[in-house]
Amino acid sequence: MMTEHDVKHTTFTLERTYAAPVAKVFAAWADPAAKARWFADGGDHELDFRVGGREVNRGGPEGGPALTFETWYRDIVPDERIVYTSTLSADGVLATVSLTTVELSPADDGGTRLTLTEQAAYLDGAEDPAWREQGTGCWLDALGAELGADG
Question: Can you give the pTM of this predicted structure?
Answer without folding.
Answer: 0.91
